[in-house]
Amino acid sequence: MGYRVAVVGATGNVGREMMTILEELNFPVDEIHAIASRKSKGVEVSFGDRTLKCQDLEQFDFSTVDVVLMSAGGTVSKEWSEKIGKAGPIVIDNSSVFRMDKDVPLIVPEVNPDAVKDIRKNIVANPNCSTAQLVVALKPLHDAAKIKRVVVSTYQSVSGAGKEGMDELWNQTKAIYGLGDAKPKKFPKQIAFNVIPFIGAFNEDGYTDEEAKMWNEVHKMMDPEIKLTVTCVRVPVFVGHSEAVTVEFDRPISVDEARAILREAPGVLVVDKHEHDGYITPVDAAGEHAVYVSRIRKDHTVENGLSFWVVSDNLRKGAALNAVQIAQLLDETGTLKSSSGFRSITV
After folding, report:
1. What percent of the chain stands above pLDDT 70?
2. Which residues act catalytically here (predicted)?
3. Which residue in 112, 138, 150, 161 is a FRET match for 250, CA 20 to 30 A apart?
4. Where in the chain is the domain with CATH 3.30.360.10?
5. Angle formed at CA 26 by CA 21 and CA 27, multiple of 5 degrees
6. Per-residue pLDDT averaged across 138-147, rounded?
């Protein structure tokens, strides 16, 4: 027997990807419901070879499902996630609302699966898209040689800002070629043929909340002693976040040792050769499940330093894939109970 599943925000980029990945990973689904706002009621979405019509969030009875994948934005999550959790199902929330809540586990299954044992509000939080791929690469290295400090510069695709972000890049590109109106609407500056060193909102210290999310989430999931500084940059790429990462360890670690550790790490694929096909770009990673690590090399400016390049599909490992993997983890640990009362094992 499988589970009764609801996807909230089913018409968005991540919601549609959740539906796709549930089917791709053969998650045991008995019933599935596509949920959206009232204005999207009746809109059709795909689940495998089936077509589902979206149901109204405000009218849906969440006591009839076992697990809810929530990807409708922070405002909706703040209003609905706790109410849904109290109705019975476990909510896997993709927004930032509950990530730092001490009563809500923040989970990347390859990094801190044991956190699933401490669910108090029937809510599990999905991390920020840039954090998810970063910790998948950092955790196996931290286990081998304790990390002291990390410096990260992100190159984040427009899909991280939703469909509106993707539309803006597409429309601005067409407008510039056609001498049309390229005035920014979603982003603070032109994104086509440009990069924007700003994502989110400014904090008092000059960092953005997107940057703060990354170090707060790394501290919660991995180790609060790791020093981390981040610069988040939006780039004119449709799908796939990239990160230039420099790490300082408490002991020497060679390039070959790091490469060997990462090759054995869950969720990581190492593509690292000194040739043109020896590294991964966002185009290569789009549609894939892995976190790719390339260009591993010594950082000669510190005693025990390495630099490397990390790329992943932000709609997948950065959001939808990680959420479904959390659902698999809940299933495999017996935390999630199916409607029949029997646990279904995911292979």
Report:
1. 97
2. 129 (acyl-thioester intermediate), 241 (proton acceptor)
3. 112
4. 130-314
5. 80
6. 98
